[in-house]
Every structure is written in C-alpha cells, then in structure tokens.
Amino acid sequence: MVAERPVLATARRFTGWYIFAAVLFIVAGLFAIIEPATAVVAITLMLGWLLIFGAVAHLIGTFRGGGAQRVLFQIFSAIVFAIGGIYILTHPLLAISTLTVLLAVVIFLVGLFDIIGYFRIQSENRSGWMLVNGIAALILGALIWVHWPSSSAWAIGTLVGVNLLLTGITRLMIGVSGRRLIKDVTA
C-alpha cells in the first residue's frame, strides 16, 4: 500500500473532527430541546459572560490609540458591555424574559419581511416557500408573544436546540460527504 498523500491525510483528519463537532452539535441540540429551561439559563449566562469578555476587549482596544474620539467610543462601549453583562449575570430570570420578548419581536418582523419579499418576487419560481416561511414565522412570533412570560421557559432553549440540531445534522452530512470523496479519491 502506498503512503497516503499529506493532503488526503489532512482532509481525513479534518473531516473526522468535523464529524465529531457535528455529533456534539446534535447532542447539545437534543439536550436543549429536551431541557429547554436548563438550556435557556445556560444560554443567558453564556451571553452575560460574552458581554463581559466584550467589555474587556473594548478596554484593550482603547490602548490601540486612534484619537480621542475612538478611545472614548471604546471606553463607552466597554462600560455598556460590562453593565449589560453584569446585569444579565445578576438577574438571569429577568434577562431570560427580556430576551424572549426580543426573540418574539424579531421572529415576527422576519416573518413580516418574508411576506413582503414574497409579494415583490412572487413571479419567481419557488417563491411560495418564502410566503410559507413568513406565515410560519408570524405564527411562531405571535405564539411566543401571546404566551409571554410563560414562553420564557421554553422558547429560547427550544429554538436554539432546534438550530443546534439542524446545524449538527447539516455538518454531519457535509463531513460524511467529505469522507466519501476522500474514499473515492483513494480507491
């Protein structure tokens, strides 16, 4: 057997890690769907910490210079990020409730824009899917809004879980396809 070419070895390693990451996405997505209340707390705490890390990054950005206006912007941004992060970490339930309302509004607006977009391109082939997606988004956004604040316990966790699950499945299919291509090349 001839030694494997370095490019193929790298591609094999990469697809292996890609498939591994895809499985992690699928497991995390299933967990978030099964336990949305736990997932939403984890997501909220992660958001709080990301804002804190963003504040630190903006503070570090002040040392890069660029004039007084840029330095003041970086300091102001750092303060806003830090306040937001600390608030989310110290008041996670209120943050979850606020994020749920924001999610409902965003999903509703996306649905509205999809419907408007459908009427602008309705003559295009397959544009009906945009209308279907818009109607579904309107309904989902309205359901989250109408059931708020009780929807706070499930909405974000479930939607993030579904997104993680679909992302994992998509990445898994890409990784498996990559493996098949490598197998075809080496055969």
The gist of it:
With 187 residues, this protein is mainly α.
Show the helix and strand layout:
Blueprint: H1 6-34, H2 36-62, H3 68-90, H4 92-121, H5 128-146, H6 155-186
Helix pairs in contact: 1-2, 1-6, 2-3, 2-4, 2-6, 3-4, 4-5
Detailed description of the structure:
Helix content is 86%, strand content 0%. It contains 6 helices and no strands. Helix 3 (68-90) crosses helix 4. It has helices at residues 6-34, 36-62, 68-90, 92-121, 128-146, 155-186. It starts with 5 loop residues before the first helix and ends with a helix. The longest helix is centred in the C-terminal third of the chain and has 32 residues, at 155-186. The protein is extended. It has one domain (6-186). By secondary structure, the chain is mainly alpha-helical.
Count of helices?
Answer: 6
Report the β-strand fraction as a percent range: under 5%
The quaternary structure here is single chain
Write down the domain tally: 1
According to DSSP, the number of beta strands is 0
**Amount of helix:** over 70%
Descriptive keywords:
187 residues, mainly alpha, 6 helices
